[in-house]
Automatic annotation (TrEMBL):
Keywords: DNA-binding, Transcription, Transcription regulation. The lineage of its organism: Bacteria, Bacillati, Bacillota, Bacilli, Bacillales. SUPFAM superfamilies: Homeodomain-like, Regulatory protein AraC. It comes from Oceanobacillus zhaokaii. This is AraC family transcriptional regulator. It holds the Pfam family AraC_binding. SMART domains: HTH_ARAC.
């Protein structure tokens, strides 16, 4: 890589969009997987594209619209690069990034920025990292299905909207419970265990948890386990049984049944589908 601060194994990919994509779709123009030192920094007055960045490891500084932010590991930032902006590594970091364009991107960015700014925690979201992998794999192999790429970009924006809505509505007590679930999803935890962490009765806790998240604590826990399982199905070589236990399911059969109920696919079929659209 020629960019200052990019380290060995960093990769950059490009895509030349079709006329149809330019007129109708969201479309990627370039992307990459960067390993960065503290010297990595990008500063622009204007660049007529939009930018997704997933911080896989390390920390990134972001200066945007007079705001100064730190994006830490498992954070995601979304920028409208038509305005002055700067981002760079605070320490050795690994980022995945995509530049894209498309009608409606400005309106979606403005909506998200008004609600939540430009930095999003995706600790509880395995969809966005998967979507980033899919679009970058297509660009790396120079096999971009522009219709699929457009859908992936829309899916990422939709996931950010869901995160934005959750962040606005969840109070500190429920956030504390969510953190407990995130740290203990692979263990045999119950409603009583979770409620005890926030000093509420199980009944009262369950009621306010659903009011604020739209899920019961059990539904939230299962969704978290399923999302983690999706990531392992895509990124690991573990067997279905190994993934089941790593995600907190007490049997492979229960995992398969629950996964199919939530996704419409068995774990094996889901894995085949994911790899099919990323080849």
């Amino acid at each position: 890589m020629k960019e200052k601060g990019t380290l060995k194994n960093s990769e950059q990919y490009f895509h030349i969009p079709s006329t149809f994509a330019k007129e109708v779709l969201y479309y990627p123009t370039m992307g990459g997987n960067y390993f960065c030192s503290e010297q990595y920094e990008t500063k622009r007055q204007r660049f007529e594209q939009y930018y997704f960045c997933y911080v896989k490891k390390g920390k990134m500084k972001v200066f945007y619209k007079d705001g100064k932010y730190i994006a830490k590991e498992n954070d995601f930032f979304f920028l409208d690069c038509h305005f002055p902006h700067l981002y760079g590594a605070v320490e050795n970091s690994n980022i995945e990034w995509v530049h894209f364009k498309g009608a409606g991107a400005k309106e979606y960015f403005d909506l998200l920025y008004r609600k939540s700014g430009c930095i999003f925690s995706i600790d509880n979201n395995w969809e966005i990292p998967n979507y980033m992998k899919q679009i970058l794999n297509m660009m790396k192999e120079d096999k971009v299905d522009e219709h699929v790429a457009s859908l992936i970009i829309q899916h990422i924006i939709y996931e950010l909207l869901k995160l934005s809505n959750q962040n606005q509505n969840i109070d500190g007590t429920i956030k504390q419970a969510v953190v407990f679930i995130e740290k203990n999803y692979n263990k045999d935890i119950s409603l009583i265990d979770i409620a005890k962490q926030v000093n509420l009765s199980p009944y009262h806790f369950s009621r306010i948890f659903k009011e604020q998240t739209k899920y019961t604590p059990r539904q939230f826990l299962i969704n978290y386990r399923i999302n983690y399982a999706k990531d392992l199905l895509y990124t690991s070589n573990f067997s279905i049984g190994e993934i089941a236990f790593k995600c907190g399911f007490n049997s492979e059969s229960y995992f398969v049944t629950t996964f199919k109920k939530h996704t419409g696919y068995s774990p094996k079929k889901y894995q085949e589908f994911i790899f099919k659209i990323t080849i």
